[in-house]
Write a structure and sequence with these properties.
Blueprint (H helix, E strand, L loop, with lengths): L1 E4 L6 H11 L8 E4 L3 H6 L2 E3 L5 E2 L4 E2 L18 H14 L2 H20 L16 H6 L11 H42 L5 E3 L7 H7 L5 E5 L4 E5 L22 H8 L4 E4 L5 E4 L2 H8 L1
Parallel strand pairs: 1-2, 1-3, 3-5, 6-7
Antiparallel strand pairs: 4-5, 7-8, 8-10, 9-10
Helix pairs in contact: 1-3, 1-6, 3-4, 4-6, 6-7
């Protein structure tokens, strides 16, 4: 399949769109053309982020035309990555739910950045998140580096390879989260105390606990060589907890922490009071209680 996109500096929008196309189950290695030549564009099977037309049936995925290419119910406008993902995401993931999760966690942020929509604002002056869009943009050659067509193409190919790996990992992670959700719901149902959720393995639990366990304060789970007690945040991605660990525990370790907690195998409590560690399941439960 021959895919055309614009020449010049590349952005996360078209880079991720092309990476997604390369993950289609029947996709042969893509022939990627970077050009603005109308004849070369017309000769391609698919045009991404160029051409000023959105028509999936004809292989056009652009959003630069007058009026754009639509927006999601939440107001985030579609850029080329989102247009490709809307058309092919479920097929790439093999599941509508997984594709929707990837749209929420990755695609919409890239689209918003490309369409000039602010979805987060810094709380500290001159300090802002370094997003995946910044990562891809940073792979463009600087003015001091190889700016030849070959150098620019090598940088672009490296960006597409990175985006492809990120997409693969996000899809794998989303699939794992869906499978984990059932196990976390089972642990919530079996909890002796609704304030303490005990897992028998390390699982992504925050989304499900926040949605399904309104009384939960702490989650106990096994780590590689010990057991953790983690506070449940007030909302997904927040640093504020429903209940912090005690201030007297903050920053204490080993014998000092054991003395203040009364738990013999207590090992560590973070200064931010969101996680503590014990050597055993029983010790972690005692800390949580």
């Amino acid at each position: 399949m021959r895919v055309a996109t614009h020449s010049g500096s590349f952005h996360a929008d078209e880079v991720f769109a092309i990476a997604a196309l390369s993950l289609l189950d029947d996709a042969e290695p893509l022939e990627i053309v970077r050009t603005r030549d109308p004849e070369l564009l017309a000769a391609a099977d698919v045009r991404v982020d160029v051409g000023q037309r959105h028509d999936p049936a004809r292989g056009d995925f652009d959003h630069h035309q007058r009026g754009g290419a639509g927006e999601r119910p939440n107001g985030i406008r579609y850029a080329s990555f989102g247009l490709v993902w809307r058309e092919h995401g479920a097929r790439i993931c093999g599941d509508e739910e997984i594709a929707a999760r990837i749209d929420a966690t990755l695609v919409q942020g890239v689209d918003a950045n490309d369409t000039g929509q602010t979805i987060c604002e810094p709380l500290i002056e001159d300090v802002a998140p370094f997003t995946v869009s910044h990562v891809i943009a940073a792979l463009n050659p600087t003015w001091e580096e190889d700016g030849s067509p070959e150098g620019k193409r090598a940088a672009f190919d490296a960006a597409v390879a990175l985006a492809r790996d990120i997409l693969r990992r996000e899809i794998a992670g989303a699939r794992a989260q869906v499978r984990a959700a059932a196990l976390v719901r089972e642990a919530i149902a079996q909890a002796e105390d609704p304030r303490i959720i005990v897992l028998d393995r390390g699982l992504p639990w925050q989304r499900e606990v926040l949605a399904s366990a309104p009384e939960a304060l702490f989650v106990v789970y096994p780590r590689e060589e010990d057991w953790g007690v983690q506070a449940v945040p007030r909302r997904l991605g927040a640093f504020e907890n429903r209940k912090d660990l005690p201030a007297a525990w903050a920053g204490r370790t080993d014998a000092e922490l054991a003395a203040v907690t009364g738990v013999a195998d207590a090992r560590f409590c973070h200064t931010a009071r969101f996680i503590a560690v014990a050597g055993s399941r029983e010790g972690a439960l005692a800390l949580a209680r």
